[in-house]
Amino acid sequence: MNQAKIEKLVSRLRYNVGSKPRKLKNVDGPEGRLRKIKKTLTAVIKYERIELNYARADETRGYVERLISEALRHGPEHGETMELANFWIKEKQLVHKLFKVLVPRYQNYTTSFTKLHNAPCIYPGYAYKRAILELKGNIYPTVEQSNPHQHNLLHNILLDAARKEYRMEKYKEIAANMNF
Amino acid sequence: MTMVSRLWCRKARQNLAFAKVLGKEPKTFSTLVQLKTDEATDNNNDSQAQTNDELIKSPSLGNYRLVYPEFLPDPNPLYRNSIREKLERMDMLNRRSVLSIPEFYVGSILAVTYSDPHAVGKINKFVGICILREGCGLRSSFLLRNVVNGEGVEVRYDLYDPAIQNIDCLRLEKRLDDELLYLRDAPLEYSTFPFDMEIEAKISESVPVNDIKIPLNPLPWSQRWERLNLKGVKEIVVNERRQKKAAALAKPWEKYDLMKTYRETIPEEEQNEIFSDVYTKLNELEIQKNILKRKYMLQRQNSSKTRTS
């Protein structure tokens, strides 16, 4: 049983954080792991939606969320946050994007700032699961597509008709019970 | 170290001088019993109460995490259990309502009175510097270090051990490091504290940081201190091989690892939930503790005055 570290205050992340960090296979160990995440994080902030292997996407997601929440918490005047942004974001013009575009966008969010979708493994595919990682509130059309012909499906037509019939019966009943 | 403590004592005395002057008034009705005069001073002298309030201030909800770190659970989700945590918190509050546990940090000097069946009078008192605080909940503990008969002695106490009869914080201060385990390899004078030390008056609201730098003994050491990036140690001299190894094993990127810091701490929202749960009870206890401390200070002032006159 360890004591929680208390010198730094952090905001709670609004997605289910895994209990252990993934190692992300590489030759340099933990340093190389951060280097890989740095690349992905920069790409996410730049393109706002990317497709990649699931493990790396899930691992990067936490870092993106944490960086944005730190920027929201402290703002650009805070030296430590600026140092963090400088370390994590490889292209320096994106540091401006973080503080001037993303922070105002996520000011009033009550949900997580990113979204992780499972992506299909297109034939012949490869061993690793694929995923789509995106920043919420981006300009692209949604990844999740609803069926535009949903209301034309037979069971939905039948259900609609049943609902209508029930409603009409209720109206009739109410009209019959009314006394003037 | 001794110099610093001496300076500290003098400062404390100077600051207490005005409190002494105010303390003269109750002497006019000196036939009363000691305790009653104290109550009278508490009721009558508003100005005195104010000065004492300045001396002793209860912590606000913002810094509860620093004052009561053991109320926060282990951040590892494997060990989390909300019901157990709640029950433990209730038990801790119950224990605190019986035994007043003072605010202390690593680097503070504590006196612990412990019931020991083998000691003379079945009571054992140990004074020492707190060099480590660990664990959370009912299992939280602290490690005291002092020198007895020229030998370094360390005693680990569980904070909520029912055998503890009294805990006093003799000197409230912090050091530059979170753990002072390197005192084991430092000259003994740096971990020597007299067993008849008295409680020093708290002067400022914020806890003072003692920025003393301690030299280490020559090798061999109990740990490779050169690898730990210690702030409270004078420059560490090791051979080139060890320097190279320390440089190779340094992890300068660790402070940027955002998820690592997140997984090692409890988020602010959760901390607020926990502390708002225990706030009313802790605040009550804090007020009681302050009153007791004030009484103790007054008693000591009066007794010293009678001794001098």
- pLDDT < 50 stretches of chain A: none
Classified in CATH, the superfamily of the largest domain in chain A is Ribosomal protein L17
Multimeric status of the protein: heterodimer
Would you report the number of β strands of chain A?
A: 3
Alpha-beta classification of chain A: mainly alpha
Report the count of strand segments of chain B.
5
> According to CATH, what is the class of the largest domain in chain B?
Mainly Beta
- Rg over CA atoms of chain B: 22 Å
The arrangement of helices and strands of chain B along the chain is: HHHHHEEEEEHHH
Count of helical stretches of chain A:
5
Q: Number of domains in the coordinates of chain A? A: 2
Largest sheet of chain A: 3 strands, antiparallel
End-to-end separation of chain A: 74 Å
Greatest interface and its participating residue counts = A-B, 26 and 37 residues
Main pleated-sheet profile of chain B: 5 strands, antiparallel
Radius of gyration of chain A: 24 Å
SSE layout and pairing:
The complex is a heterodimer of chains A (180) and B (309).
Chain A: H1 30-47, E1 49-53, H2 54-74, H3 79-88, H4 93-105, E2 114-119, E3 130-135, H5 154-177
Antiparallel strand pairs in A: 1-3, 2-3
Chain B: H1 2-22, H2 34-44, H3 46-55, H4 64-67, H5 82-98, E1 109-115, E2 123-134, E3 141-148, E4 151-158, E5 164-171, H6 240-249, H7 258-264, H8 268-308
Antiparallel strand pairs in B: 1-2, 1-5, 2-3, 3-4
Helix pairs in contact in B: 5-8
Overview of this protein structure:
- Chain A contains 5 helices and 3 strands.
- Chain A is mostly helical and 180 residues long.
- In chain A, helix 2 runs antiparallel to helix 3 (79-88) and helix 2 (54-74) crosses helix 4 (93-105).
- Chain A is elongated and about 80 Å long.
- Chain B folds into 2 domains: 15-58, no CATH class; 70-298, SH3 type barrels, CATH 2.30.30.
- Chain B is built from 8 helices and 5 strands; from the N terminus they run αααααβββββααα.
- Chain B has helices at residues 2-22, 34-44, 46-55, 64-67, 82-98, 240-249, 258-264, 268-308, and strands spanning 109-115, 123-134, 141-148, 151-158, 164-171.
- A 5-stranded antiparallel β-sheet of chain B has the order 4-3-2-1-5, with no helix packed on it.
- Chain B starts with a helix and ends with a helix.
- Chains A and B meet through helix 1, helix 2 and helix 3 of A and helix 7 and helix 8 of B.
